[in-house]
Amino acid sequence: MDKPTLNINGKQITPAPPKMKVWRLFLQEAEKDHEGESLEDFLEAQTELLIQGFGRPDILNAQTVEDVELSDIVPTVKALFSWIQTETFSKLSELPKNK
Predict the structure, then answer these.
(1) Contacts of 9 (CB under 8 A, 6+ apart)
(2) Which of 15, 25, 26, 43 fits 54 for a cystine, CB–CB 3.0-4.6 Å?
(3) Which pLDDT tens digit goes with each residue over 30-59?
(4) pTM of the full predicted structure?
(5) Its domain of life (predicted)?
(6) Do 83 and 1 meet the contact criterion of CB atoms below 8 Å apart?
């Protein structure tokens, strides 16, 4: 799977290798019941996932995320989570098998 990309102020960025903190944040959000949640709260959580998931605070942070097109937020978060899962499980498949 290709790394997701995001354009910030004319720069195309890709995510840093995923860390355990990011994995936990994405799992927590995936397990969350969004019923009754306001759209504003949902989008705020999604933008935080983008910031943490890309792990590029020098380029994508609380200020610059405001320049991300609204319609790109949720699809990019989904692509980012899929990529994180692929990266994680591909590394696990390389571990030696117990005999």
Answers:
(1) 59, 64, 67
(2) 15
(3) 898 888 889 999 999 999 999 999 999 999
(4) 0.84
(5) Bacteria
(6) yes
